[in-house]
Protein backbone atom coordinates (compact mmCIF):
# COMPACT_ATOMS: atom_id res chain seq x y z
CA UNK A 1 0.00 0.00 0.00
CA UNK A 2 1.05 3.61 -0.58
CA UNK A 3 1.52 5.88 2.42
CA UNK A 4 -1.90 7.50 1.86
CA UNK A 5 -3.67 4.16 1.52
CA UNK A 6 -1.89 2.83 4.59
CA UNK A 7 -2.85 5.84 6.72
CA UNK A 8 -6.49 5.54 5.70
CA UNK A 9 -6.44 1.87 6.61
CA UNK A 10 -4.76 2.68 9.94
CA UNK A 11 -7.38 5.35 10.68
CA UNK A 12 -10.18 2.92 9.85
CA UNK A 13 -8.77 0.39 12.34
CA UNK A 14 -8.20 2.96 15.08
CA UNK A 15 -11.73 4.39 14.73
CA UNK A 16 -13.14 1.19 16.19
CA UNK A 17 -11.78 2.71 19.45
CA UNK A 18 -10.44 -0.64 20.62
CA UNK A 19 -6.90 -0.97 21.92
CA UNK A 20 -4.58 -2.28 19.22
CA UNK A 21 -1.30 -3.99 20.22
CA UNK A 22 1.56 -2.60 18.15
CA UNK A 23 2.63 -5.95 16.64
CA UNK A 24 -0.95 -6.69 15.53
CA UNK A 25 -1.30 -3.32 13.81
CA UNK A 26 2.07 -3.75 12.11
CA UNK A 27 0.99 -7.16 10.85
CA UNK A 28 -2.36 -5.84 9.60
CA UNK A 29 -0.65 -3.03 7.68
CA UNK A 30 2.36 -5.14 6.66
CA UNK A 31 4.85 -2.55 7.90
CA UNK A 32 7.62 -2.40 10.48
CA UNK A 33 7.02 -1.01 14.00
CA UNK A 34 9.10 2.03 13.05
CA UNK A 35 6.92 2.80 10.00
CA UNK A 36 3.81 2.35 12.16
CA UNK A 37 5.11 4.91 14.65
CA UNK A 38 5.71 7.40 11.82
CA UNK A 39 2.17 6.86 10.48
CA UNK A 40 0.71 7.41 13.95
CA UNK A 41 2.68 10.66 14.22
CA UNK A 42 1.22 11.78 10.88
CA UNK A 43 -2.30 11.18 12.20
CA UNK A 44 -1.48 13.26 15.28
CA UNK A 45 -0.29 16.09 13.04
CA UNK A 46 -3.70 15.98 11.33
CA UNK A 47 -5.52 16.44 14.65
CA UNK A 48 -6.25 12.86 15.70
CA UNK A 49 -5.50 12.08 19.35
CA UNK A 50 -3.76 8.71 19.46
CA UNK A 51 -2.60 7.32 22.81
CA UNK A 52 0.45 5.08 22.84
CA UNK A 53 1.71 2.58 25.39
CA UNK A 54 5.41 1.76 25.12
CA UNK A 55 7.08 -1.57 25.76
CA UNK A 56 6.77 -5.12 24.52
CA UNK A 57 3.03 -5.16 25.23
CA UNK A 58 2.55 -1.61 23.94
CA UNK A 59 -0.03 -0.46 21.47
CA UNK A 60 -2.26 2.35 20.25
CA UNK A 61 -5.78 3.63 20.80
CA UNK A 62 -7.69 6.56 19.29
CA UNK A 63 -9.51 8.74 21.79
CA UNK A 64 -11.75 11.79 21.63
CA UNK A 65 -9.89 15.06 21.25
CA UNK A 66 -10.70 18.74 21.58
CA UNK A 67 -12.25 18.90 18.10
CA UNK A 68 -13.91 16.43 15.75
CA UNK A 69 -11.49 15.37 12.99
CA UNK A 70 -12.62 13.90 9.65
CA UNK A 71 -14.18 10.46 9.98
CA UNK A 72 -13.58 7.46 7.76
CA UNK A 73 -16.74 5.40 7.26
CA UNK A 74 -17.33 1.90 5.97
CA UNK A 75 -20.10 1.50 3.36
CA UNK A 76 -22.66 0.20 5.87
CA UNK A 77 -21.84 2.99 8.32
CA UNK A 78 -22.30 5.67 5.65
CA UNK A 79 -25.72 4.27 4.70
CA UNK A 80 -26.79 4.10 8.36
CA UNK A 81 -25.74 7.71 9.00
CA UNK A 82 -27.48 8.96 5.85
CA UNK A 83 -30.74 7.21 6.80
CA UNK A 84 -30.54 8.68 10.32
CA UNK A 85 -29.89 12.18 9.03
CA UNK A 86 -32.72 11.85 6.53
CA UNK A 87 -35.10 10.99 9.35
CA UNK A 88 -33.82 13.78 11.62
CA UNK A 89 -34.17 16.34 8.83
CA UNK A 90 -37.96 16.12 9.07
CA UNK A 91 -38.07 15.30 12.78
CA UNK A 92 -39.58 17.18 15.67
CA UNK A 93 -36.44 17.88 17.72
CA UNK A 94 -35.91 21.65 17.74
CA UNK A 95 -32.59 22.77 16.30
CA UNK A 96 -31.67 19.48 14.64
CA UNK A 97 -33.48 19.81 11.31
CA UNK A 98 -31.27 22.53 9.78
CA UNK A 99 -28.06 20.85 10.92
CA UNK A 100 -29.30 17.47 9.69
CA UNK A 101 -29.95 18.83 6.21
CA UNK A 102 -26.47 20.39 6.05
CA UNK A 103 -24.82 17.17 7.18
CA UNK A 104 -26.99 15.04 4.87
CA UNK A 105 -26.09 17.19 1.86
CA UNK A 106 -22.40 16.69 2.60
CA UNK A 107 -22.79 12.92 2.89
CA UNK A 108 -24.91 12.61 -0.29
CA UNK A 109 -22.55 14.78 -2.34
CA UNK A 110 -19.80 12.18 -1.82
CA UNK A 111 -21.90 9.01 -1.65
CA UNK A 112 -21.51 6.57 -4.59
CA UNK A 113 -24.72 5.75 -6.53
CA UNK A 114 -24.76 2.16 -5.21
CA UNK A 115 -24.85 3.42 -1.60
CA UNK A 116 -27.56 5.95 -2.47
CA UNK A 117 -29.68 3.09 -3.78
CA UNK A 118 -29.14 1.24 -0.50
CA UNK A 119 -30.17 4.32 1.47
CA UNK A 120 -33.32 4.82 -0.67
CA UNK A 121 -34.21 1.14 -0.27
CA UNK A 122 -33.95 1.34 3.52
CA UNK A 123 -36.01 4.56 3.64
CA UNK A 124 -38.71 3.26 1.27
CA UNK A 125 -39.21 0.09 3.30
CA UNK A 126 -39.34 1.81 6.70
CA UNK A 127 -42.48 3.25 8.27
CA UNK A 128 -41.61 6.18 10.55
CA UNK A 129 -44.07 8.63 12.12
CA UNK A 130 -43.68 12.30 11.24
CA UNK A 131 -43.38 15.05 13.83
CA UNK A 132 -47.18 15.23 13.98
CA UNK A 133 -50.15 14.16 11.94
CA UNK A 134 -50.88 16.33 8.92
CA UNK A 135 -47.43 17.91 8.64
CA UNK A 136 -46.41 18.52 5.01
CA UNK A 137 -44.04 15.88 3.67
CA UNK A 138 -40.81 17.15 2.11
CA UNK A 139 -38.85 14.90 -0.23
CA UNK A 140 -35.33 14.35 1.13
CA UNK A 141 -33.85 14.59 -2.37
CA UNK A 142 -35.49 17.99 -2.87
CA UNK A 143 -34.23 19.09 0.54
CA UNK A 144 -30.62 18.08 -0.06
CA UNK A 145 -30.55 19.35 -3.67
CA UNK A 146 -31.67 22.80 -2.55
CA UNK A 147 -29.26 22.77 0.39
CA UNK A 148 -26.33 22.03 -1.92
CA UNK A 149 -27.40 24.77 -4.34
CA UNK A 150 -27.57 27.27 -1.45
CA UNK A 151 -24.13 26.20 -0.26
CA UNK A 152 -22.56 26.45 -3.72
CA UNK A 153 -24.41 29.62 -4.87
CA UNK A 154 -25.64 27.72 -7.93
CA UNK A 155 -28.55 28.78 -10.14
CA UNK A 156 -31.48 26.40 -9.75
CA UNK A 157 -34.53 25.43 -11.83
CA UNK A 158 -37.63 23.73 -10.45
CA UNK A 159 -41.40 23.42 -10.83
CA UNK A 160 -43.52 25.14 -8.19
CA UNK A 161 -47.20 24.70 -7.32
CA UNK A 162 -48.17 28.02 -5.76
CA UNK A 163 -51.20 28.38 -3.54
CA UNK A 164 -54.35 27.77 -5.60
CA UNK A 165 -52.40 28.26 -8.84
CA UNK A 166 -51.07 26.18 -11.70
CA UNK A 167 -47.57 24.75 -11.61
CA UNK A 168 -44.99 27.22 -12.90
CA UNK A 169 -41.34 26.88 -13.86
CA UNK A 170 -38.92 28.91 -11.73
CA UNK A 171 -35.31 30.03 -12.18
CA UNK A 172 -33.89 31.19 -8.87
CA UNK A 173 -30.71 32.14 -7.06
CA UNK A 174 -31.08 30.14 -3.82
CA UNK A 175 -29.86 31.82 -0.65
CA UNK A 176 -31.00 29.90 2.41
CA UNK A 177 -33.30 27.16 3.71
CA UNK A 178 -35.56 27.97 6.66
CA UNK A 179 -37.39 25.55 8.94
CA UNK A 180 -40.39 27.28 10.48
CA UNK A 181 -43.19 25.60 12.39
CA UNK A 182 -44.28 22.57 10.40
CA UNK A 183 -42.78 23.66 7.07
CA UNK A 184 -39.54 24.14 5.16
CA UNK A 185 -38.97 27.23 2.99
CA UNK A 186 -36.40 28.26 0.40
CA UNK A 187 -35.47 31.95 0.31
CA UNK A 188 -34.27 32.85 -3.19
CA UNK A 189 -34.07 35.60 -5.80
CA UNK A 190 -36.54 34.83 -8.60
CA UNK A 191 -34.84 35.81 -11.87
CA UNK A 192 -38.02 35.88 -13.95
CA UNK A 193 -39.94 38.00 -11.43
CA UNK A 194 -36.85 40.05 -10.44
CA UNK A 195 -37.74 39.93 -6.76
CA UNK A 196 -37.10 37.96 -3.58
CA UNK A 197 -39.43 35.05 -2.91
CA UNK A 198 -39.94 32.32 -0.31
CA UNK A 199 -40.96 28.87 -1.61
CA UNK A 200 -42.54 26.07 0.40
CA UNK A 201 -40.48 22.95 -0.17
CA UNK A 202 -43.49 20.62 -0.12
CA UNK A 203 -44.63 22.46 -3.28
CA UNK A 204 -41.27 22.20 -5.06
CA UNK A 205 -40.66 19.40 -7.57
CA UNK A 206 -37.91 18.31 -9.94
CA UNK A 207 -35.16 20.70 -8.78
CA UNK A 208 -32.32 20.88 -11.33
CA UNK A 209 -28.95 22.54 -10.58
CA UNK A 210 -27.65 24.34 -13.69
CA UNK A 211 -23.94 24.47 -12.87
CA UNK A 212 -24.08 28.27 -13.25
CA UNK A 213 -22.68 30.23 -10.29
CA UNK A 214 -23.87 33.63 -9.08
CA UNK A 215 -22.85 36.30 -6.60
CA UNK A 216 -25.37 36.31 -3.69
CA UNK A 217 -27.51 39.45 -3.46
CA UNK A 218 -28.28 41.39 -0.30
CA UNK A 219 -31.49 40.19 1.32
CA UNK A 220 -33.93 43.00 2.31
CA UNK A 221 -34.36 41.59 5.83
CA UNK A 222 -32.33 40.87 8.96
CA UNK A 223 -31.94 37.24 7.89
CA UNK A 224 -33.76 34.53 5.93
CA UNK A 225 -35.95 33.58 8.90
CA UNK A 226 -37.14 37.17 9.35
CA UNK A 227 -37.88 37.38 5.60
CA UNK A 228 -40.08 34.25 5.71
CA UNK A 229 -41.89 35.46 8.84
CA UNK A 230 -42.63 38.83 7.19
CA UNK A 231 -44.07 37.07 4.16
CA UNK A 232 -46.28 34.82 6.29
CA UNK A 233 -47.65 37.80 8.22
CA UNK A 234 -48.61 39.49 4.93
CA UNK A 235 -50.42 36.40 3.65
CA UNK A 236 -54.17 36.11 4.25
CA UNK A 237 -54.88 33.39 6.82
CA UNK A 238 -58.19 31.76 7.57
CA UNK A 239 -58.00 32.12 11.36
CA UNK A 240 -56.63 34.83 13.68
CA UNK A 241 -56.20 33.02 17.01
CA UNK A 242 -56.15 34.80 20.36
CA UNK A 243 -56.13 32.82 23.63
CA UNK A 244 -55.48 33.78 27.27
CA UNK A 245 -53.56 31.19 29.31
CA UNK A 246 -52.82 30.91 33.03
CA UNK A 247 -49.09 30.23 32.67
CA UNK A 248 -45.83 32.19 32.40
CA UNK A 249 -45.23 33.76 28.99
CA UNK A 250 -41.65 32.50 28.67
CA UNK A 251 -42.76 28.91 29.31
CA UNK A 252 -45.42 29.03 26.58
CA UNK A 253 -43.06 30.82 24.17
CA UNK A 254 -40.68 27.86 24.44
CA UNK A 255 -43.47 25.50 23.35
CA UNK A 256 -44.83 27.71 20.57
CA UNK A 257 -41.41 28.58 19.13
CA UNK A 258 -41.41 30.86 16.11
CA UNK A 259 -44.94 30.00 15.01
CA UNK A 260 -46.85 32.41 17.25
CA UNK A 261 -46.58 35.51 19.42
CA UNK A 262 -46.72 35.26 23.22
CA UNK A 263 -47.11 38.36 25.41
CA UNK A 264 -47.38 38.78 29.17
CA UNK A 265 -50.83 39.40 30.64
CA UNK A 266 -50.79 39.85 34.41
CA UNK A 267 -49.94 36.50 35.98
CA UNK A 268 -50.60 34.73 32.67
CA UNK A 269 -50.05 35.37 28.98
CA UNK A 270 -51.78 35.86 25.64
CA UNK A 271 -51.14 33.67 22.62
CA UNK A 272 -51.75 35.05 19.10
CA UNK A 273 -51.38 33.00 15.91
CA UNK A 274 -52.44 33.31 12.28
CA UNK A 275 -53.17 29.86 10.87
CA UNK A 276 -54.89 28.12 7.98
CA UNK A 277 -56.14 25.25 10.13
CA UNK A 278 -56.83 24.90 13.84
CA UNK A 279 -55.04 21.63 14.56
CA UNK A 280 -51.76 23.34 15.48
CA UNK A 281 -53.27 25.77 18.08
CA UNK A 282 -55.30 22.92 19.58
CA UNK A 283 -52.12 20.88 19.98
CA UNK A 284 -50.34 23.84 21.61
CA UNK A 285 -53.18 24.37 24.07
CA UNK A 286 -53.42 20.68 24.91
CA UNK A 287 -49.67 20.41 25.58
CA UNK A 288 -49.53 23.60 27.65
CA UNK A 289 -51.10 21.94 30.70
CA UNK A 290 -52.67 25.27 31.70
CA UNK A 291 -56.20 26.64 31.97
CA UNK A 292 -57.12 28.91 29.07
CA UNK A 293 -59.89 31.00 27.56
CA UNK A 294 -60.38 31.18 23.78
CA UNK A 295 -61.14 34.76 22.73
CA UNK A 296 -61.13 34.14 18.97
CA UNK A 297 -62.08 32.68 16.63
CA UNK A 298 -65.33 30.92 17.62
CA UNK A 299 -64.29 27.97 15.44
CA UNK A 300 -61.34 27.32 17.77
CA UNK A 301 -63.62 27.16 20.82
CA UNK A 302 -65.80 24.66 18.95
CA UNK A 303 -62.75 22.63 17.93
CA UNK A 304 -61.47 22.53 21.53
CA UNK A 305 -64.90 21.39 22.78
CA UNK A 306 -65.03 18.70 20.10
CA UNK A 307 -61.56 17.37 20.94
CA UNK A 308 -62.29 17.53 24.67
CA UNK A 309 -65.50 15.52 24.24
CA UNK A 310 -63.62 12.92 22.20
CA UNK A 311 -61.01 12.52 24.94
CA UNK A 312 -63.74 12.30 27.57
CA UNK A 313 -65.46 9.49 25.68
CA UNK A 314 -62.17 7.63 25.38
CA UNK A 315 -61.66 7.81 29.14
From TrEMBL:
Q: Which PANTHER family match?
A: PROTEIN PAFB (PTHR34580:SF3), PTHR34580
> What keywords were assigned to this record?
DNA-binding, Transcription, Transcription regulation
Q: What is the lineage of its organism?
A: Bacteria, Bacillati, Actinomycetota, Actinomycetes, Propionibacteriales
Cite the HTH deoR-type domain residue spans from the record: 3-58
| Name this polypeptide is given | YafY family protein
Residue spans making up a coiled coil are: none
Q: Which InterPro entries does this one have?
A: CBASS_pafABC_assoc_protein, DeoR_HTH, HTH_11, PafC-like, Tscrpt_reg_HTH_DeoR_CS, WCX_dom, WH-like_DNA-bd_sf, WH_DNA-bd_sf
Highest rank taxon of the organism: Bacteria
| Species this chain originates from | Nocardioides pini
One Pfam family in the UniProt entry:
WCX
Amino acid sequence: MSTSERMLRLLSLLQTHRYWPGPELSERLEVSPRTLRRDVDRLRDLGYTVDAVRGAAGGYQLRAGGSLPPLLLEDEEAVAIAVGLRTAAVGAVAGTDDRSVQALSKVLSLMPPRLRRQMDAVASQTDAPGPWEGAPVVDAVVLTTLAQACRDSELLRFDYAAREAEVSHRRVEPLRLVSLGRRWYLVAWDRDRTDWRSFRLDRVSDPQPTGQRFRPRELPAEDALAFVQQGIRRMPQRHAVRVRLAMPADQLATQVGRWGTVSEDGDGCVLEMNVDDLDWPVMVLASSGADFVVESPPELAEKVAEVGARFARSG
